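stage 2 :: seqdesign
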C-alpha cells in the first residue's frame, strides 16, 4: 500500500534522473522535496580537534555551484508539477519540521559513507523516529551499488587494482532508474522558501575568471549538457586516454567531476552514455578509461565506508608514525597562494584559487610538493583543497591526498619529480605562462627553472627574481635526496 505523503530530503543527489530516493517516494499520493543549506557547511570550521587548524569548509566556487544546482533542481521539479522547499538551517531541524507539517509517513534520502555526512543523517533519523515518521535510506552515488559488491564492503581490497578486477569480474552495474512521474507537492503547507545567496551563507562571491577553461555551471541540466558535448558533440571520448593528462583547455578531459560530486549527474547515466558512444562511434582503450576512472571514484567511496575516520588521521589508514610532519604557516601560505617559486606548482595553485579547478596532473604535483617536498601536514593541504575545489568530494579528496602522502592506499612512498613532470606535461611552458603572466617572456627551456636565469637574462625577459616572481622557497633536489 502506498504511503499517503512522502518527503524527499535531497543531499548530494541534486538530480531527477536515476534517483532512487525520488523514484521510491513517488509511490506516495503526495511528495514534498526539500533541501537544507546546512550552516555548518559554510564559514570557518575546526579540523582534527583543538590542537589542529581551522579552515573554511565550502568556499566561493563550490557554494556558487551548489546554489545553481539547487536552483536548477527546483526548476526541473516545477516543470514536472512539483516544487522544492529550500531552507537555510540544519537538516535535523528542517526535515523533521517539514515532515511534521505535512503529516508525512516516510522521508526518503541519500545515505553517504563519510563521518560528518553520516552524523547529520543519524541526527535526522533519530528525530524522525521520535515523530513516528519512517526514515528510508538509499545508496545513490556510486557506479556499483553497495549491495552488489561481490564481498562485504568491510572486506574489500585496500588495493585499487584488486578491487577493480573483483567488481569488473564478479559484479554488475545496475541500469539507470527511469525518471519518476511526480505527484502533487503540498508546498503551501510550509512555503517554498528562497535560495540563499553566497552572502547569506557567509561566503564571498566569486566572478568567473576568463582564464578558466570551463565555467562549471551548477545543475543537472548543465551536467547533462556537458556529458553530451564531450561525448557526442565534440567526439572527445575516443582520445581520452591520450589527452587526459592535459593542463589547458576544456576538451582534454571530461570535467564531469563537479556534477558527479554534487549528484547532478549519476555515474550510471555516464556509463550508459559511454556504452551508447561505444555502439555508435568507437570502443577502444579511451572509452574504457573513463569507466576506469569512475571505478576509482567508487573505490574511495567504499574505502571510506570500510575505514571510516581513520582516513582523516595524520598517519592515515596505515597508521604511520615514522613521518615527521611539520607545521610552518609561512610556507603553507606561500604554497596556498601560488608563491613557492616553483612555477609548475604555482600555476596549479593559482588556477585552483581563481577557478576552483585543477586537472588531475596539476593536483598530484601540487599535493606532492606540500606533502613530500615541504613535509607539511598533508591534512592541511587536503583541507585547503576542500575549501577551494568546485568538485570536492570528501572520499576522493582525502583518499587521494593520503595516497600521495604515503599514508593511504599504497604501501610504497610516492612523490612526484616536479621538474620532470613539468618537462613532460608542459614542455612548451604554455600552462605556466597562462597562469603566471610575469613569466610569459621566459622561453620554454627556462620557464620551469627561473632560478637558473642570469641577471642579464632576467633583464632580457622582464622578470626580476625576488621582485616580479619569488625565489624558490626550497632546493628541490635537496628535498628529493631526503626522500630517497
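stage 2 :: out
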Amino acid at each position: 500500500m502506498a504511503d499517503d505523503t512522502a518527503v524527499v530530503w535531497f543531499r548530494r543527489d541534486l538530480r531527477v534522473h536515476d534517483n532512487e530516493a525520488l523514484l521510491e517516494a513517488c509511490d506516495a499520493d503526495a511528495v514534498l522535496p526539500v533541501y537544507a543549506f546546512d550552516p555548518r557547511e559554510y564559514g570557518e570550521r575546526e579540523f582534527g580537534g583543538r590542537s589542529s587548524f581551522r579552515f573554511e569548509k565550502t568556499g566561493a566556487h563550490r557554494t556558487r555551484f551548489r546554489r545553481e544546482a539547487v536552483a536548477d533542481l527546483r526548476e526541473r521539479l516545477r516543470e514536472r508539477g512539483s516544487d522544492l522547499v529550500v531552507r537555510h538551517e540544519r537538516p535535523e531541524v528542517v526535515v523533521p519540521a517539514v515532515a511534521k507539517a505535512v503529516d508525512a509517513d516516510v522521508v526518503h534520502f541519500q545515505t553517504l559513507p563519510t563521518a560528518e555526512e553520516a552524523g547529520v543523517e543519524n541526527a535526522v533519523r533519530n528525530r524522525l523516529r521520535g515523530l513516528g515518521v519512517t526514515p528510508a535510506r538509499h545508496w545513490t552515488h556510486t557506479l556499483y551499488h553497495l549491495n552488489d559488491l561481490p564481498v562485504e564492503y568491510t572486506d574489500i581490497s585496500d588495493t585499487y587494482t584488486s578491487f577493480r578486477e573483483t567488481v569488473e569480474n564478479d559484479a554488475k552495474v545496475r541500469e539507470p532508474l527511469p525518471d519518476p512521474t511526480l505527484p502533487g507537492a503540498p508546498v503551501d503547507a510550509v512555503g517554498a522558501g528562497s535560495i540563499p545567496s553566497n552572502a547569506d551563507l557567509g561566503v564571498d562571491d566569486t566572478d568567473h575568471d576568463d582564464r578558466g577553461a570551463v565555467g562549471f555551471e551548477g545543475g543537472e541540466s548543465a551536467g547533462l549538457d556537458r556529458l553530451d558535448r564531450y561525448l557526442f558533440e565534440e567526439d572527445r571520448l575516443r582520445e581520452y586516454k591520450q589527452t587526459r593528462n592535459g593542463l589547458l583547455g576544456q576538451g582534454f578531459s571530461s570535467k564531469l567531476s563537479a556534477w558527479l560530486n554534487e549528484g547532478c549527474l549519476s555515474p550510471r547515466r555516464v556509463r550508459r552514455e559511454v556504452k551508447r558512444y561505444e555502439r555508435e562511434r568507437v570502443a577502444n582503450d579511451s572509452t574504457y578509461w573513463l569507466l576506469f576512472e569512475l571505478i576509482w571514484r567508487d573505490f574511495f567511496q567504499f574505502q571510506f565506508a570500510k575505514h571510516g575516520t581513520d582516513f582523516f588521521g595524520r598517519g592515515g589508514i596505515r597508521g604511520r608514525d615514522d613521518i615527521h610532519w611539520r607545521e610552518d604557516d609561512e610556507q603553507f601560505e606561500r604554497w596556498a597562494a601560488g608563491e613557492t617559486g616553483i612555477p609548475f606548482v604555482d600555476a596549479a595553485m593559482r588556477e585552483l584559487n581563481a577557478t576552483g579547478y585543477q586537472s588531475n596532473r596539476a593536483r598530484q604535483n601540487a599535493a606532492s610538493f606540500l606533502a613530500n617536498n615541504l613535509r607539511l601536514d598533508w591534512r592541511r593541504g587536503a583541507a585547503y583543497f576542500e575549501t577551494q575545489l568546485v568538485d570536492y568530494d570528501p572520499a576522493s579528496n582525502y583518499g587521494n591526498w593520503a595516497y600521495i602522502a604515503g599514508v593511504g592506499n599504497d604501501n610504497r612512498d610516492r612523490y612526484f619529480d616536479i621538474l620532470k613532470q613539468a618537462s613532460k606535461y608542459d614542455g612548451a611552458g604554455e600552462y605556466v605562462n597562462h597562469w603566471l603572466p610575469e613569466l610569459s617572456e621566459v622561453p620554454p627551456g627556462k620557464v620551469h627553472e627561473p632560478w637558473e636565469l642570469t641577471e642579464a637574462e632576467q633583464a632580457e625577459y622582464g622578470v626580476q627574481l625576488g621582485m616580479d616572481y619569488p625565489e624558490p622557497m626550497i632546493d628541490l633536489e635537496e628535498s628529493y635526496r631526503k626522500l630517497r
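stage 3 :: structure notes
- The domain at 5-140 is CATH 3.40.50.620 (Rossmann fold).
- Residues 156 and 163 are 7 Å apart (CA to CA).
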